[in-house]
Structure to design on (76 residues):
């Protein structure tokens, strides 16, 4: 049986955090994160049994949810 190898280029400037780190960062449960994934609001990557998120996407979720002073969150 012949095996093929897939080469993936990773952008080192992108920061990834695990679901455990993301839950702690946001102050929410892993179940809350799973609900956002199911809603399609949060994308993830899975390596083995560990789920990873882009930190920028987590930060964008905070910015997009700002109720007051939303313009203060945007730098660009």
């Amino acid at each position: 049986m012949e095996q093929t190898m897939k080469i993936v280029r990773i952008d080192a400037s992108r920061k990834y955090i695990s679901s455990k780190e993301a839950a702690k960062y946001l102050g929410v449960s892993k179940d809350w994160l799973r609900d956002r994934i199911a809603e399609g609001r949060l994308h993830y990557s899975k390596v083995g049994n560990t789920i990873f998120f882009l930190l920028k996407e987590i930060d964008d979720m905070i910015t997009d949810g700002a109720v007051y002073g939303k313009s203060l969150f945007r730098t660009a």
About this structure: Residues 16-67 form one domain.
